[in-house]
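User: Hello! My lab partner asked me to get a predicted holo structure for this protein. The small molecule is glutathione, SMILES included with the sequence. Please write out the structure tokens.
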Amino acid sequence: MGRQQLLGAEVSYYTGKVRAYLRYKRIDFEETVASREVYQQIILPRTGIAMIPVLISDDDIAVQDSTDIIDFLEARYPQPPVYPEGPVQRLVALLLEIYGDEWLVIPAMHYRWSFTENRAFAIEEFGRLSVPDAEPEAHREIGEKVARPFAGALPPLGVSGHTAPGIERSYLAFLKDFEKHLEEHPFLLGTRPSIGDFGLYGPLYAHLYRDPYSGRLMKKEAPSVATWVERMRDPGPDQGDFLAEDHLAETLQPILQRMFEEQGPVLADTMQRLAEWAREEHERLPRAIGMHDFSIGGERGQRAVFPYSIWMWQRAYDHYHTLSGKARERADALLKAVGGYELINQPIPQRVKRENNRLMLA
Ligand SMILES: N[C@@H](CCC(=O)N[C@@H](CS)C(=O)NCC(=O)O)C(=O)O
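Assistant: Hello! Below are the structure tokens for the protein in complex with glutathione.
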């Protein structure tokens, strides 16, 4: 097979996730910077939306969405699989992908856009990637313009002066827990990465490692997390294995517990809100359907309701509901211990699907 083309950027969250996956799988690919020109000439015409990352496969199929890209490639390059065979390990991998994709985006965006040093760094980068040939002075100006919608995503994500201390508390507690886990295990589930590691790498690379202020913070507070980022970025030749017999390290429990405590209520409420929304007539499903309350690190705030999260949740939910017998018992014991049992046993009243890169009611 020939080469895959990845359209994205170093500063981009979800591009990092796919890039790490491609490198781990040793898939031959070329990365093209998503400049303004690339958006106009390739991304928009091929996908209909202004989002990265985009994969243009070696047989010219365009795929957007980091999860869809990974699943598309996983079908073509099954070895070594990033979805563990072990049912409990697979469940945990899917859960932590959701946590990385849909929850750690809160600290990632907060640190990038609320701290002057990171913000200036990101703006310069946005400018440089948007118009690579422009003069350096033009980068800041163009960067400011291009960055505006990203920085503007803070209120919908629930980042405010009020929630900021909670976001930082929650992130630092996560770092501490992940640090403890990584002191014993190179990856979440053993000596090789799973879809859960790729999900966490999204926020933990571009924003929380690579942005200068957050990078120093990570190296100081959680040096093993920084080393894990480097291991994910440049995977060595040894491909390792998942822990035998579907074993799960106990050090993952506090991480899952925090996920269910903070993100769990948001997922539950998003499901209800989506079902209510679906009872009325609408032309199409927007990215956000109103606002709801949430708590993070002990602070309460308001954030937008994102139906996309339910598409991610369906993956973990559907996997769990295929389990029976001993596997189900083991999954249930874990879920009860980390506070996720009720949520995963709550039927999804309105499902969603993705078609032509758009989310819609199923
Ligand atoms: N769930 C999508 C999210 C993609 C995404 O949000 N990409 C960002 C860059 S990292 C983007 O292009 N945002 C533009 C926008 O939100 O309009 C994925 O996994 O690919």
